[in-house]
Structures are given as C-alpha cells and as structure tokens.
Amino acid sequence: MTDITKTFRAIIKAKQISSDFNLGLSKRSKKNEKISTGFLSQAKIILSDITKLKYSLLESRTNYLSPIYLLSSTNKIMNDEQRHDYEQHVERQIKRCRDNLEELKSSIGLICFQGQRRAHFELVCAYLERDLVECTKIYSEQKCLRYKRESERKKIGRLDNDVLRVTLSANKNKTENLVENAKNENNSEIIVTKISQFDADEQEHQIPSAPLKSTELHQLQLENDRLYHDVAQRSEEIHAISTQVVEIAQLQNELFDNIFSQKDLIQNVDAAAVASNDDLAAAIIHIRDAIRNTAQMRRWMTETSSSESDVEETEDDNVLPISSHVNIVHGLKTVSCLTLDSNGIRMITGGHDETMKMFDFTSMDKHFQAFRTIQPCPGRLLRAIEYSANNDMILIVPGDCQAIVVNREASGKHIVYKTVLGDMYVKDMNRTKGHKALLNYGCWNPSVNSQEFMTCADDCTLRLWSLNKRDQQVDVIRTKGESGRDVRTTTCTYSQSLYSNENCNLIAAGCENGNILVWDRRRSFVHVTFKCVNAHLQDHSITALKWSYDSQILASRSTDHTLKIWDIRKFNQCLSLHENLPNQFSMTNISFSPNDQFLVTGVSKLNNLNESDSGGKLVIFNRNDLSKPVEEILFNDSVIRTNWHPKLNQIFATTNNGLVRAFYDEERSPMAGVRLCLNRKERKDKSTNDFIANINPLDSSEPIEETHEIYPEKNPQGDKKSSSLHQHIVQKMTRPNFHEKEDPRAEILKHAEEAERNPKWVTPAYVHTQPKPIFQQQLDEEEGDNDDFVPIFKKARKN
C-alpha cells in the first residue's frame, strides 16, 4: 500500500488556505494569488515537460530496444547513430527539467518564508522531482537493457572484443550511476518504481487488435517457418564463421608470440650492428694511419717494440738518447708550444711570433722545412698546443679568453670548435658559460676516443669542455686557497697511464700561491680530493704538472726555481726535490721517459756576470732521486718546452731564440722521427729548369757558350731511386735527342739547303699569285728624304 499521509496533509493545508480566503482577507489574497499563480504556472510547465518526456520514452521503447536484433543490423528500426542522437536528446531534456526544478525550489524562499503556503510549494516541488526521477529511471533501465541485448548479440556472433566489453561495462556503470544520482537527488521517500510498471503502461497504450482468420494464421505460420529456417541457416553460417575466427585468433596468437620472440633477436642484431659499425669506423682510422706509413715506418714499429722492451729492462745511464742532435728552425722568437702525435709522424710548434708550424717527418728532407704555416689567432701569443689522443684534432690555447680546436691538417674550414666567451658582468664563475680572463694552459683528456679537453685561466677556474656541447662548458672547477678566496690557476693536467687504469680519473691543478689541488672525477668537484698546501713558495706560480705513466708520481715545476716530485698516496710530503733550476718562463714543463725512470726539464738563461752558469740547460734526473742530475746539456739560450716521446725515444726541446733541438741515439732510437729526414736529399724546386743554354742564332760571329749538362752525374754509390714507369719511358724517349756540348745554331743551319729545294710554309702560298718574288726596293740616301716612300707612322713631325 502506498503512503497517503503526505497527500492527506496537503489536502488539509489546502482547505485551511481556502478557509483563510473565505474569511475576508481580500488584499492579501490578491497578492498571494498573483504569487501563487506565477509559481503554479512554472510548475505546470515543468510537469508538462516531464509528462511529454515520459510518454516519448514509453512510445519509443520498442524502436529503441529493437526486438528483432538477432536477425541483422539492417533490419533495426533505429541504427546506432540514431540511438546516439536519441540518447543525447533525452539527456538534454532531463537536464533542462532538473535545472528548471532547481530554479523553482530556489524561488520558494522569495515568495514565502513559512506557513502552509511554503509547505504546499515544497510539496509540489517534491511531486515534480518524483516524476522526474521516474523518467530518469525509465531512461536508465532502457539504456541498460539495450546494452545488455547488444552484448548478447555480440557474444552470439563471437565477434566481441575486450575493447567493446570494456565500453559496454563503462556505459552500464554510467547508467547505474545516473540512477543512483537520481535516487540521491530525491530527498523524499516517494520515488519508488519498478520495471513492471513500464510494461503495464505499455500494455495500456497498445491498441486492441481484431481476431485473425485461419488463412491469415496459416500464412503467418508459413512465414514463421521460413523465418525460422533462415535463422537456423544463418546460425550455421555464423557457427562456421566463428570456428574460422577462432582458428584465425589462434594463428594470430602464434604470430604475436613469434613477433615478440623476434623482437629480442632484432635488438641483439641491432646492438651487434652498432658495435660492428663502431669497430669499422675505428678500423678505417687505423687503416688510414697505416697507409700514411712507409716501409721504413713499418720497420720502425718492429724496432720500437724491441727497443722499448730493452729500455724497460735496463737501468743503465748510458741508454739516454742524447748522443746526436739536429736543429729545427721555427723562427726568431720564443718557441712556447711543442707537441707530437702519438705515432711520432708529425710535430707542431708555436711561439710568440703568433704562427703555428706543422712538420711531417715522413715527407721532410734534411733541411726540416714546415709543410704548413698558419696564424690560428692573429694578434695573440700561443701558450699551448696539443694533439688529441686519436691524433685527429689539435687544441690551441692562445693568450686570449677562448681556446680553439682545429682538424689534423689545419686547412680549409679548420676551426672545429671554439669555446664560449664568459659574461664579463657576472661575478659568479659557476654561472658564466666560459672563461672571462686570459687562458694559461689547456690539455686533452688522454682517454681514447675522448672528445673532452680542459682549460685553466686567470679567472680562478678550470673548465671541462666537450665537442658535443657547444653552448657552454661541461663542468666548472673553482680553485680556492686556505682562506676560501679564489686563487688564480696557472696549469692543469689529466692523469694518464700506459700500463693500467688506476688513478686515471684524477685532475690536478697548480695555483699561483704554490698549492697543488687534485680532484677525483667520480666525485663532486666542490670538495678537493687531495690537497698539498705550500707545495712551492707563495707568490711563485706553478708552471707545469706532469703525471708519471704509472699515475703514482706527480712532478711539479715552479718559478721558485725548484723541481719536486710527489706521491699521490702520501701527498703532503715531498719525495724529492732539486733547487737552483732557474725558471723565467710560465710555459716551462716536465716530461717523463718512456720507461718511466727519468724525467727531463728545461733551465732558463740568467743574465749575470758568471758566464759559466748563465746559459740554459736541459737537465735529466732520475725519478727516484732528484738530488743530482743524471745528465746536463748546455744551451746558449733558455730551454722552455721539452717532450720525450714514448715511441720515438727522442727528446725535443725548444728555446727562446726560435730553435727546436731534437736529440736521438742511433742505436736506441728507432728509424723514425728526425732520423727519417737525415738521409733524404734536398728536393729540387719545381720552378727551376733542367735545360739552360745561352744561344744567339742571329749573330754567328759571337762565340757560342757551352750548354750546361742536362743530366746529373751518375750516382757513384749506385743507390737506386724510385721512379714510375711513365718517368722511365719519357727518359728513354728524350735522352737520345739531346747531346752534350752541341751547337743549336749549327743544327738549325743544317736544314737550310733542304728548305730552299723543298719549301713547305711561306713559298707555296704565293705560287699562283706571285710566281716571281717581288721584294721592297732599296732606297738611296738621297731619295731617303722623299716622304712618299716613308710610312705615315715614321714621318717626321712638322713643327
């Protein structure tokens, strides 16, 4: 039974209101009638909209649910697109009615604040809300039933997929949520309905039909049988198609399994291809280096391996490669830069004349002429030049704020990379993209295939650069003293090792206050890993730091005229030192020997009265004891840069007078480097002519000078010279045509008589037009004044 308590109360309140009108409250009644009339008119509009919506839902239920959905999608009264439009229309109607009802509820407070009228209006709104919830429930149930039947149709056809199932479940949940929301919005307990009510309403609206005749029933029976037969036949077809679809699905699963298994194989092949590509690129580089080498260089490689083993096994002082030397001229000013590639094929020098000269030992003769001279930074002194580990690039550090990297040949567009200039107005060095003060030194990372290099400058920083990052540096390292203030950095170096990878991640820097700082790349650069305070005297800058090849010993050179070595395992204590080594150049460096037993450095020239000790020196020390030098080589000028090449076993030293002196040993040093150039003869200039003669064929009275010899004398030693087949053929063809000491004029006059008998050029042209030659008449001296016989351009000018 339905609860009519609220209805009864509403009727009682309506009667009370009508009795109040009968009591004679005319004015108030008129005003309330106007207010109630507007409210009730709005309520009637909402009720009519809800009623229309309800009837439309009940009428379109059959078309919307499509009772013949099992036959075909083409027989549906509504297709999917029409259903979608119908659902959107119904949802808009429900939303509009709900909004109008909310506005009607909010207007109750403006009409009356309390009393029976307010209760009546609230009750009207409650009834309207109940009807709206019923319409919402009817729509949600229809939608749920449609999705359910649609899912059943899909399952029968065995064509449903996971995506559609998820969509149907989502739509079902959505409709259930709509019903729950509609129930939650109803504040009263009146809204209760069932799906049976809709069936009853549908039966009420159905039109009664007349009874069918026997013929019609028979016809309907036949049609029903035919339809049943069609449905059965189509069901069999659907079953056959479903079996095929199942087989296709199984094949697809197998195909997917095979594809996933092949994915790993493809990744492995890709990784192998990338690795082989890298190996191929490295192999191409090695092949190019091998092509550049001659037969002598290949012989040198075998001698180098044997000589290195011999040098490493012996510790005798007589193995120093200083028995012979040659001088290579760079210029007239100080040579402050010196570098050789790892193979010992090329050498580069640079100095205060702003020029960089490149020498190739495989193509030079005994005069040691550079094959290329350039000015990489016009107007700037060169402070450091160094080859990369792969010898394919060259780092140039000028007396400027920006370092540059050029290719191996330094030709064409040779500048490969140029460091960024820092912002002069930014004080924080970590925020600038580059150096903002003059550079002091720079060096490459010794790791193979590394594209990283390091520079230090007067802005108290070390900066790590990469060729792959062109907009700014990779890392910034600030050098500070004990008080925390920034200290100018004068030199820097990477650790290197030829025998192991131990301590290959260390970076060392020398400061102006004499401190040596060491960082580990595996840690943050904020804190120093090793620090040696007052390694050299304060106010004396450190000019060079050099790691030994075992990366255990660090040698330092300073302007306090000392040379010291340090053990990284006990960094606060100096192992050995040597004093009284004058150093007046900030580019003076140190080099270790290939066997890591000796080290060499240069000594500057002093301008004092004692001439015996005033010259420069090249001093060689034993690594274990620096108290006394093993060897001293005197120079007339200061020695600045030194390089003891590990493969050539030759020592190179630069001076302040523009010379580079190379020391070698004929027995210990391999046939490479400067030794390749000693036995080569001077190459003849291409502009000079081999045939030179002084011939005047018009004057026979002049004595004929003897011509120079066309071919040089045969080599008495019988040395064989390499020549091509083309040169050999040309020499055989041209050499018999020339004879030594012959008269060219006499050879020409031999053919005079033959030319008169058989003219070939001038005479045959006048055979028909002028068979008898006519020559110009000889004018007498008296007739020479006649202007008629004188050409116009030779006539005398009349004044």
Low-pLDDT parts are 69-76, 158-164, 185-200, 688-721
Structural class: alpha+beta
Q: What's the CATH H-level homologous superfamily of one domain?
A: YVTN repeat-like/Quinoprotein amine dehydrogenase
- Annotated CATH topology of one domain: Methylamine Dehydrogenase, Chain H
The biggest beta sheet, please? 4 strands, antiparallel
Number of distinct beta strands: 28
What is the count of helical runs?
13
Shape: elongated
Question: Brief overview, please?
Answer:
One of its GO terms (cellular component) is nucleus. By secondary structure, the chain is an alpha+beta fold. It has 13 helices and 28 strands.
Describe the structure.
With 799 residues, the protein is an alpha+beta fold. Among the domains are: 41-65 and 78-153, Methane Monooxygenase Hydroxylase, Chain G, domain 1 (Up-down Bundle), CATH 1.20.58; 324-679, YVTN repeat-like/Quinoprotein amine dehydrogenase (Methylamine Dehydrogenase, Chain H), CATH 2.130.10.10. Helices cover 36% and strands 19% of the residues. It has 13 helices and 28 strands. The strands form seven sheets. The protein has a four-stranded antiparallel sheet, with no helix packed on it. Strands 2-3-4-5 form a four-stranded antiparallel sheet, with no helix packed on it. Helix 4 packs antiparallel against helix 5 (116-157) and helix 5 runs antiparallel to helix 6 (162-185). The longest helix has 79 residues, at 214-292. The radius of gyration is 54 Å and the shape is elongated. The protein starts with a helix and ends in a 42-residue tail after the last helix. Mean pLDDT is 77; it is low at 69-76, 158-164, 185-200 and 688-721.
